[in-house]
Amino acid sequence: MPRFLSGLLPSNWCAASSFFPKLFNFRCKMGCIQGKCCRTCAPSSDGDNDEELSVYPAKNTNIPATMSLDVIDIPSHNLRLSYSVLSQRGYYPETPDKENQDSYCIRTCLKGNPNLHFFGVFDGHGLCGAQCSTFVKHRLVEKLSDDPALSDDPIKAYSTAFLATNDELHSNSDIDDSMSGTTAITGLVIGDKLYVANVGDSRAVLAVKEGDRVVAQDLSIDQTPFRKDECERVKLCGARVLSVDQVEGIKDPRIQSWGDEETDGNDPPRLWVQDGMYPGTAFTRSVGDSMAEKIGVVADPEVSTVQLTGDNPFFVVASDGVFEFLSSQTVVDMVNKYADPRDACSAIANESYKLCSWIISFLIADLLLD
């Protein structure tokens, strides 16, 4: 089971200031490092919103796909890590030229260490969402890499990096993050350990073999007002928590029960200032969003830790565009059908094409351990 730990909240954390999906998919496979095609460190890459990758002919899908595939070694545990990334630009019928606000980051061999690798997906939102996600994908991994305590205390390093990146984004004069920001779901592989840090409503899921079944085990918990602990936390910081129907007087605002995300996701509870109709965020944590920060939306990550074993064939990291419509188990079942990571990417892209009306992003990692 993963061990969930929250980062370090600053002392003033309350008061401190589509039909075609966009798809990021990293699928990593681990095995013996003695194969001739291995190399210690594959090229790192950062997925900007308009990055073009080599084309891979997707199977069983009518969605165009761009994808890359690479392999790296983790010599400390005699593992191989292969990964791919697929990107599909989003499409909104009313705004076909809408800017894609998602970014991804892959950094292998952090600090020159062949056993240390970073993967992240960043889902921007607001008028400056693209700038926010791009800024965060660069600065977060740089701050992690520069932290001398990363290898010894990755949980503390994660918290420090997220909070410092958030402060830098606030002070950046070129980006208005007052009503814009990004969620972030990231994975840090250190040997046979996986550290997942989440800020927002994205999700990481580990596949676990149980007999002849492969079951989904969440490595993160969506940070939304559906969570009682998060709802109470932001209320203590001054937030009103209401759905849009409640704000508009269609439903009784005194009713503070919204069911769950799977059955009541069409009109979720949102965060509002006491005397205004903003910011209306459906998440309780993010990087940026300086206006929402005043009512408890913080950049402090929740970090989970899990040891990767032979019973973990893969893990998935995805934005809410995937899990808004597909359960963790459904995604795991889909990925488990494919031997080639790129085919798994295409399958989820195709399913998302049929079900969702906005941009999605996700990461998949196969784990084969000797």
Automatic annotation (TrEMBL):
Tell me the ranges covered by the PPM-type phosphatase domain, including all copies.
82-370
**Catalytic reaction annotation:** O-phospho-L-seryl-[protein] + H2O = L-seryl-[protein] + phosphate; O-phospho-L-threonyl-[protein] + H2O = L-threonyl-[protein] + phosphate
Q: Where are the transmembrane segments?
A: none
Q: Which domain of life is it from?
A: Eukaryota
CC cofactor: Mg(2+); Mn(2+)
Query: Which Pfam families does the record associate with it?
Result: PP2C (PF00481)
Which InterPro entries does the entry link to?
A: PP2C (IPR015655), PP2C_BS (IPR000222), PPM-type-like_dom_sf (IPR036457), PPM-type_phosphatase-like_dom (IPR001932)
Q: Which PANTHER family match?
A: PROTEIN PHOSPHATASE (PTHR47992)
Similarity comment: family membership: Belongs to the PP2C family.
Annotated protein name in UniProt: protein-serine/threonine phosphatase
- What lineage is this protein's organism placed in? Eukaryota, Viridiplantae, Streptophyta, Embryophyta, Tracheophyta
